[in-house]
Amino acid sequence: MNAQQFNVHFALQNLSDNSSDIPIQQALRKAAVLIPLMEVDGQLHMLITRRALHLRAHPGQYSFPGGKVDKQDNSIIETALREAEEEIGLKQSNVDVIGQFPAHATFTGFRITPIVGIIKQPFEIKIDPGEVSETFWVPLSFFTTASNRYQLRYMRDGQTFDVHYMPYKGKFIWGVTAAIIDLLCKHISTTDKS
Predict the structure, then answer these.
(1) Residue 157, domain extent
(2) CATH assignment at residue 153
(3) At what angle do helices 175-188 and 3-12 cross, to 10 degrees?
(4) For burial by CB atoms within 10 Å, which of 53, 140, 172, 175 has the most?
């Protein structure tokens, strides 16, 4: 799938109002992540980061660039773009934002809004080691293949919910990042509406 096809599929689908079934009782801190996609040789690729091991929230987990909403941010989109520039050196002007998904709640107290963006031009990744330990690209076609996306039912505090996961070349993508990827893939698919 190239960027033009992705845009058509993304725009033609209605967004779900509720994308998280995690039972959360506490007040949640607002955050945003950028789902960075870039076309390479006619196919979209997704950029994934790995959070630094010393971070308090989700250390070492695979994620998208992003973070907490700051007071100076004018919108949730601005948060995602600012964080991507700080974490991996992706200039805000180099991203074409095409939409967003409903926020995902996490047990760690965040309400994370995923922002979908197409990177216009290749760029030099400049990792902020205080935030990110590594980055890698995954062909979107890997994730859109339903057999590469898994989920388990998990029980916590007497309630069950789905945990998504996606192994890729020795890397274990799971949790909210995998749930967001699964939602994106289902949203753009014309056949996978489960």
Answers:
(1) 3-188
(2) 3.90.79.10
(3) 90
(4) 140
Q: What angle do CA 116, 120, 122 make, to 5 degrees?
A: 115
Assess if residue 33 is contained within a domain. Answer: yes
Residue 132 lies in a domain: yes
| Least confidently predicted of 52-61, 62-71, 122-131, 167-176 | 52-61
Q: Residue 76 — φ and ψ, nearest 5°?
A: -65, -30
Which residues make beta-bridge pairs with 51? 132
Distance CA(177)–CA(35), nearest Å, equals 10
Q: How many CB atoms lie within 10 A of CB 152?
A: 10
Backbone phi and psi for residue 78, each to the nearest 5 degrees, phi listed first: -60, -35
Q: pLDDT tens across 26-78, in order?
A: 578 899 999 999 999 999 999 999 988 776 666 678 999 999 999 999 999 99
Q: What is the pLDDT of residues 179-188, one digit of tens each?
A: 999 999 998 8
**Could you tell me where the beta strands, DSSP code E, fall in 41-158?**
43-51, 62-63, 66-68, 95-100, 104-105, 110-119, 132-139, 150-156
Number of domains in the chain: 1
pTM, two decimals, is 0.85
Give the tokens for residue 68.
């907490």
3-state secondary structure of 40: strand
Q: Tell me how far apart the alpha carbons of residues 92 and 113 are, in angstroms, rounded to a whole number.
A: 17
